[in-house]
Amino acid sequence: MGMFNFFDTHCHIHEPDFPLPVKDVLGRANNAGVSKLMCVGTSVEDSKVAIKFAEKNNNIWVSAGVHPHAAKDLRSETSLAEFASLIKNKKVKAIGECGLDYFYNHTSKEDQEYALRKQFELAVEYDIPMIFHVREAFDDFWKIYDDYPKVAGVIHSFTATKKELNEALARGLFIGLNGIMTFTKIKEQLDAASEVPLTKLVLETDAPFLTPNPLRGKINEPKNVVLVGDFLSQLRGEHLEQLAIQTTKNAEGLFKV
Where do the domains of the chain lie? Predict the structure, then answer.
């Protein structure tokens, strides 16, 4: 399965508490044909760590972002300015993960919306795509997104239904699928996954989380994006090679790498 080139568009292997030796993880990814990685920041500090990590490695880029759980990060002018300065770094190819999360109420809806809008404003200013985290909050998310309609991006860890899929596609967004698809029992999620146009699909691991079958219970790592691709190729009735080529091309085009 490792003959093709894959792009893991969403991982967190840069984090100091990532539980595996990173050199080995990168070696295994390379051996599996996972040639490009996007390390995704979840706070101002975490985005800085991701940039330092990516600067030491070729073929690793960064999405600098403030996750809804860390939304308070952007309430201070100082940290907003600090965050904005990160986007100028040549390793930064996207803003996110950012969005709305109403499943966990770690931060108020007001703080979440404020942080999301600030990141949208920067995406417009710098003409850079975004990585969106939307959990049980699509109705509010679309209302905000539609104030910034030209912004390109991807709905990360998509687990919604055809209704949300159609809303995303109508706005030109990409859909990020990961290991959840290999173990979900929810038919609507699999139905939506099989209907994503191949030209709008990107693959991701969210490592160290969401390990795909048959490795459930182990720590996730970028090499496993191949397992996600293999599962989806069977679900969707596509050749793995075709899926690998197109999803990598999609990611390279979206992130301009």
Answer: 6-255
Residues facing 44 on adjacent strands: none
Residue 203's nearest CA partner among 161, 174, 239 is: 174
Tens digit of each residue's pLDDT (9 = 90 or more) over 102-130: 999 899 999 999 999 999 999 999 999 99
- Helices 44-55, 77-86: axis angle to 10 degrees equals 20
What is the Cα–Cα distance from 256 to 250, expressed in whole angstroms?
Answer: 10
108: left (phi over 0), alpha (psi -120 to 50) or beta: beta
Q: Spelled out in words, what is the top-level CATH class assigned to the domain 6-255?
A: alpha beta
Beta bridge partners of 203: 177
Q: What residue has token string 């295994």? A: 28
Q: What is the rounded radius of gyration, in angstroms, for the C-alpha atoms of the chain?
A: 17
Q: Is 7 helix (H, G, I), strand (E, B) or coil?
A: strand
Q: Is the pTM of this model over 0.90?
A: yes
Q: What span, in angstroms and rounded, lies between the C-alpha atoms of 226 and 96?
A: 23
Residue from 123, 61, 99, 88 nearest 251 by CA: 61
Beta partners for 154?
131, 174
- The answer to whether 97 touches 65, Cβ cutoff 8 Å, is yes
C-alpha dihedral sign at 69, 161, 38, 214: positive
